[in-house]
Amino acid sequence: MSERLAAAPPLHIFTFGRFELRCAEGLLLADGQPAPMGRRAVDVLTALVLRRERVVSKSELLDLVWPGLVVEDNNLQVHISALRKLLGPQLIATVPGRGYRFTAAAEGNAGATAASSPAAAGASVGAGQAGAYPAAAAPPPTAGPRARLLVVEDHRVHRLLLARMLQLQGHEVASAENGLQALRMLHEGTHDLMLLDLDMPGMSGFELLQRLFDDRRWRDLPVIVTSGLEGTANVARCIELGADDYLHKPVNAVLLKARVDASLAKKRQHEQQTQAAARFAGAAVAQDLAAGGFRNGGRRLPATVLACGVRGFAGLAEQMPAEEAFELLNTCYLLLFDAVSQHGGVVNQMVGAEITALFGAPLPLPDLAGAPAAAARAARDAVEMIDLLNAERTAQGQPPLRIAIGIASGEVVAGQAGTHQRATYVAVGASVLLAARLKEQACEAGHAVLVDGATQAALAGLAATEAALACDAAGQAPGPGGTGPVAAYALRVGARP
Description:
Number of strands: 20
Oligomer: single chain
Strand content: 15-25%
């Protein structure tokens, strides 16, 4: 959460309907459980709820949620659409030409916050309680990147002193008294770096390092060991287990800052490299590349293919300036990418206002029936997200968008095609062609989503418990490669006029 949002008023918890927003924690609960919502979206909601008595402009929201960064408006639109999908479209109103306003009556609760907000928790850090974050009223931080750090130290005084030094450097600090508590905190939150003592009861620092190294979720987490244990053997063992650095106690504040800044800079560089690969190839493809390097060639995989296009986009684009058409296309891409990635899919092709996505390749989903279901859920979410975007466009006097989706399941040949200088992840096969044909048929017949027989058969067993996966017969669609017509089924997400 940005510092501007972290400096929240005394009321940190708001309830509206079945939702509870814990502003200072960056947490949204639905029926008492964490809502499936990203941190940026929760920050957007927090900014709107805290200013619910007035309209909040787009520029103000961008400045609150992404302070100091240049962010396109369509990023904000994606998060607004995601929030409307979860909360209901009526809770966040678009005021044409002015911005957004939170419309629900939100009841604030100051008492509950006293035990759970970062402000109260920060006081606990000063008192020696593990697991809390510092108060917003901490001493002014020194210049430098702000990060979320986890101090794992069983000695109370050492833990307090180390946490205090890191707070004065401008970081948010959480602390754990032992390795098991540290693992729980890693599962519950996001941390940029860990400072780890070695000699602890229960689970030693060496054991915790081994656990982190064995779990690919935490393997890239930077760890700086802070220990009073002497000897190069201990240092070498820590480095072998993945530690980035080793500081002897008592820790010098200047040296600590230099080592922390260097580790965070290395982490950011690694993240930028991973993001660059994911941006052009997709997260799953980037992971596949990281694991095995570039391999020119394909392999046969069972997969589900989703083809999606924005109906009439070319004609719509001709009626607006090129810059607006480009921004609208980017917004569509963001919404469609989000729907696909939320269900484990990979967008492997973008041409004009159309995308193709794969489910089950390059990385398999938990079970074979999972790929058709994941694709169907992604299609349903894509339709809903575009509908929410249309509500905003209509309020601004702009024409709505319509999408058509085709889904087909079967064996494909997928892999990296190209050269070491430039490559792309490609899938070929009858299912790829059939998904495109079904998308065209959906566009012509006015359906939102059409699926083939293999996908419908996989969904049939799930529709009894998940009604949104039910399908209805929708005639026939041209088969791939002149094989003749194939049966088509409409997913129950509502027909499109």
